[in-house]
C-alpha cells in the first residue's frame, strides 16, 4: 500500500522531472500553469488514482491550487493579445511570465529621455490599451518598476527610476484606474538588460517594466492567509508632468 503522506511529494517530483526535458518556452508555460487551480486539480486526480481515494486527491488538489499566486484566465489571455496589437511596430515586448503575469518591457524609444521622468507621447497609446485591459478585468493588479541607464550616480538614478514608475502610474490613474491597484518600485541602474556601452544599449536600460497579474481568488473552504504587502523601496520625489 502506498503511504498517502508522501504522495504529494512523489507527484511533485514527477512533474518537475518532466519539465527538465522541455524547452524553455514549454517550461515557462508548464510552470505558469502549475501556479493555478487547474494544476492543483490535475495533481489531485493523479494522487487520488494512485491512493485509490478520490476524496484525498480532491483535497490535496485544492491545496496545491492554493499555493499558486496568479492565474492565467481568458481575460488575461485576451489582454495579452490586445497589448500585442497595441505595441505592434514598437520595441515594447509583451510576454507571459512563468508565474502567469503579463509583462510589458517598455524601452526609452517610446518612454523616457535621459535624465527625465516625463512620459513621451509615443507611450500614451500603450498605456491607454493597458488601462482598458485593467478596467475590463477588475480582479487584476499592476506593478510598475522603473530603471535607468548608468549615466549619473545612484543618488540621481534611484529616485529617477522611482519617478519613472510613478509617472507611469499617474498616467494610468488619469485614465480611471484606482491607484490602489498599482504598486511601484525603482531599481536605478542596478539591473541592466544590456551593457551600458552604447547609446542604443543605454536606451534599452532606460525603461519601465509593467507586470499585470490576476490573483487567485480563495475558495470558501480554503483557509485565507494574509500575505505581506509589497513595500515600495523608494519615495516618489516629485509629481511628474506628461
Characterize the structure shown.
This protein has 242 residues and is an alpha+beta fold. Helix content is 44%, strand content 11%. The chain is built from eight helices and five strands; from the N terminus they run H-H-H-H-H-E-E-H-E-H-E-H-E. A five-stranded mixed sheet has the order 1-2-5-3-4. Strand 3 (141-146), helix 7 (154-174) and strand 4 (182-186) form a beta-alpha-beta unit. The longest helix is centred in the last third of the chain and has 21 residues, at 154-174. It is globular and about 45 Å long.
Any chance you could write out the topology, listing elements then pairs?
Blueprint: H1 7-19, H2 24-34, H3 37-51, H4 54-67, H5 74-86, E1 93-96, E2 102-106, H6 124-136, E3 141-146, H7 154-174, E4 182-186, H8 199-205, E5 208-213
Parallel strand pairs: 3-4
Antiparallel strand pairs: 1-2, 2-5, 3-5
Helix pairs in contact: 1-3, 3-4, 5-6
Shape: globular
Proportion of strand residues? 5-15%
Number of DSSP E strands = 5
Write the element-wise H/E pattern from the N-terminal end onward. HHHHHEEHEHEHE
Secondary structure: helix percent: 40-55%
By DSSP (H or I, 4+ residues per run), the number of helices equals 8
What is the strand arrangement across the widest sheet?
Answer: 1-2-5-3-4
Output mean pLDDT: 76
Amino-to-carboxy terminus distance: 67 Å
Q: Can you summarize the main beta sheet?
A: 5 strands, mixed
Low-confidence stretches: 11-16, 22-44, 56-67, 229-234
Spatial extent as radius of gyration:
21 Å
Amino acid at each position: 500500500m502506498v503511504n498517502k503522506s508522501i504522495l504529494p511529494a512523489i507527484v511533485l517530483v514527477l512533474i518537475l522531472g518532466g519539465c527538465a526535458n522541455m524547452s524553455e518556452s514549454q517550461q515557462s508555460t508548464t510552470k505558469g500553469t502549475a501556479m493555478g487551480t487547474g494544476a492543483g486539480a490535475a495533481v489531485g486526480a493523479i494522487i487520488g488514482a494512485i491512493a485509490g481515494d478520490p476524496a484525498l486527491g480532491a483535497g490535496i488538489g485544492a491545496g496545491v491550487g492554493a499555493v499558486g499566486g496568479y492565474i492565467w484566465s481568458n481575460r488575461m489571455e485576451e489582454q495579452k493579445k490586445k497589448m500585442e496589437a497595441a505595441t505592434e511596430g514598437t520595441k515594447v515586448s509583451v510576454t507571459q511570465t512563468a508565474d502567469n503575469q503579463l509583462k510589458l518591457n517598455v524601452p526609452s524609444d517610446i518612454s523616457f529621455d535621459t535624465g527625465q521622468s516625463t512620459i513621451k507621447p509615443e507611450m500614451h497609446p500603450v498605456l491607454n490599451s493597458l488601462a482598458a485591459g485593467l478596467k475590463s478585468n477588475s480582479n487584476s493588479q499592476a506593478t510598475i518598476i522603473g530603471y535607468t541607464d548608468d549615466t549619473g550616480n545612484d543618488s540621481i538614478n534611484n529616485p529617477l527610476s522611482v519617478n519613472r514608475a510613478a509617472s507611469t502610474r499617474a498616467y494610468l490613474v488619469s485614465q480611471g484606474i484606482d491607484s490602489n491597484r498599482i504598486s511601484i518600485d525603482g531599481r536605478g541602474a542596478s539591473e541592466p538588460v544590456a551593457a551600458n556601452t552604447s547609446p542604443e544599449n543605454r536606451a534599452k536600460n532606460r525603461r519601465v517594466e509593467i507586470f499585470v497579474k490576476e490573483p487567485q481568488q480563495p475558495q470558501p473552504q480554503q483557509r485565507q492567509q494574509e500575505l505581506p504587502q509589497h513595500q515600495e523601496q523608494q519615495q516618489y520625489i516629485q509629481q511628474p508632468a506628461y
